[in-house]
Design a protein that fits this description.
Blueprint: E1 2-6, H1 15-28, E2 33-37, H2 43-47, H3 58-62, E3 72-73, E4 79-82, H4 87-93, H5 99-102, H6 104-110, E5 119-123, H7 130-138, E6 141-147, H8 153-169, E7 175-182, H9 189-202, H10 215-223, H11 227-230, H12 235-249
Parallel strand pairs: 1-5, 1-6, 2-4, 2-5, 6-7
Antiparallel strand pairs: 3-4
The structure holds adenosine-5'-triphosphate and magnesium ion (MG).
The site of adenosine-5'-triphosphate (ATP) has 19 residues, from helix 1 and helix 10.
């Protein structure tokens, strides 16, 4: 199983949009995907239309249930989810920056049955706090969505630095799988410049695929459907299909 944390401490970067729609696009290719919602905002959980999520992943922290016990089916082919809930922000405050708290998620991932999922995608909150640290210690790959806006660029260096620190001290297997330009609008020079700057700074780490600004992507959460089911011919659906292909292509 490939395990990928989707992180960027900047709010509104496209993390949840990427987690949900990449999962659905991989599912379309007969891949089995487990989405883990690590964000107290529970946006991915809502997007998949999970009602009564219970405490979701918070139960890892407060009742020490197994991750497998928290997995819920979704309506989307190939995709299951460990939901989040607002409970998570309270539980986060009880967690200390010690070995036991930091490795809680990693231990729960190691206890998952082997071979059940091809991918685990972890949707992280917009901070580099202890929940994101748990995600980064429990996975081997990081995907960094970046909104195509100048303000977003300095944040990418900070994410890279955090990943390096974690790799050095707590998870030597961690690698950046890719930086993903999101909300790209080629009609504006500004947006084109930001994508160019990303490519010159991070080179091959930047995915060839760019996710364009697409209103259908912004509408899809309210419909409770990933973009491939909401509007399969939309630009957003094509972009996430391309991303899924690029990610699967990394395996050959
Ligand atoms: N390609 C896109 N085209 C149009 N709207 C988009 C696109 N990607 C994301 N959005 C919109 O931008 C907003 C932020 O996106 P999203 O929720 O995916 O970011 P996030 O990084 O998960 O945010 P948070 O940090 O709050 O968790 C949402 O309203 C979403 O619908
Ligand atoms: Mg989000």
């Amino acid at each position: 199983m490939r395990s990928i944390a989707i992180i960027n401490q900047k709010g509104g970067s496209g993390k949840t949009t990427t987690a949900v729609n990449l999962a659905a696009a991989l599912g379309e290719n007969d891949r089995r995907v487990l989405v883990v919602d690590m964000d107290p905002q529970a946006s991915a959980t809502h997007w998949f239309g999970i009602r009564n999520p219970g405490r979701g992943i918070t139960d890892l922290i407060i009742t020490q249930l197994r991750l497998l016990d928290l997995v819920r089916a979704t309506e989307v082919a190939g995709v299951a989810i460990v939901p989040a809930s607002a409970w998570l922000s309270g539980a986060e405050k009880t967690m200390a920056w010690d070995g036991a708290s930091l490795t809680m998620f990693q231990r729960s991932v190691q206890a998952l049955p082997r071979g059940q999922w091809d991918y685990m995608l972890v949707d992280c909150p917009p901070s580099l706090g202890i929940l994101t640290a748990n995600a980064l210690i429990g996975v081997t790959e990081v995907l960094i969505p970046v909104e195509a806006h100048h303000m977003a660029l300095p944040g990418v260096d900070r994410v890279m630095a955090s990943v390096e620190t974690l790799k050095k001290h707590l998870n030597e297997k961690l690698e950046v799988t890719g930086v993903l330009a999101c909300r790209v609008d080629h009609r504006t020079r500004h947006s084109r410049e930001v994508v160019q700057e990303l490519r010159s700074r991070y080179g091959n780490l930047v995915f060839t695929t760019e996710v364009h600004e697409n209103v259908r992507l912004a509408e899809a959460p309210a419909a409770g459907l990933p973009i491939n089911l909401y509007d399969r011919l939309s630009r957003g659906a094509r972009d996430y299909r391309d991303l899924a292909n690029e990610i699967m292509g990394q395996e050959s």
